[in-house]
Design brief:
Layout lengths: L28 E5 L9 H5 L5 E2 L8 E2 L9 H5 L5 E5 L3
Antiparallel strand pairs: 1-4, 2-3
The chain binds iron/sulfur cluster (2 copies).
The site of one iron/sulfur cluster has 13 residues, from helix 1.
Length: 91
């Protein structure tokens, strides 16, 4: 159907840093960290595709940047101790 990428229809793309994309507005579920279960392994920090897990200094507990977290749930899936649960955002 398309012979080269030049044949593709135009689409919207971002032209700035993803910091400017407030992807938190997409979210229907938000990650909530139970600090009693968190062992500070930082697996969530490594795998979050939106760089929305915040660790200020090594040894700190992680927190969530809810302006950019889009609620994909990857952090909850990858958290070994099960410290992150996805909770429905209020309508
Ligand atoms: S993956 Fe889970 S246990 Fe590890 S730092 Fe993140 S919340 Fe804590
Ligand atoms: S839900 Fe997705 S975007 Fe939000 S902190 Fe977890 S991995 Fe990152």
């Amino acid at each position: 159907m398309y012979e080269t990428y030049r044949d593709l229809p135009p689409i919207q793309i971002t032209t700035e840093s993803t910091k400017g994309n407030q992807t938190g507005t997409w979210r229907t579920f938000r990650p909530v960290i139970d600090l009693d279960k968190c062992d500070r392994c930082y697996t969530c920090w490594i795998f979050c595709p939106d760089v929305s897990i915040i660790v200020e200094e090594e040894g700190d507990y992680p927190s969530i940047d809810l302006i950019h977290c889009k609620g994909c749930g990857i952090c909850a899936n990858d958290c070994g101790p099960g410290a992150i649960t996805m909770e429905r955002e209020p309508l």
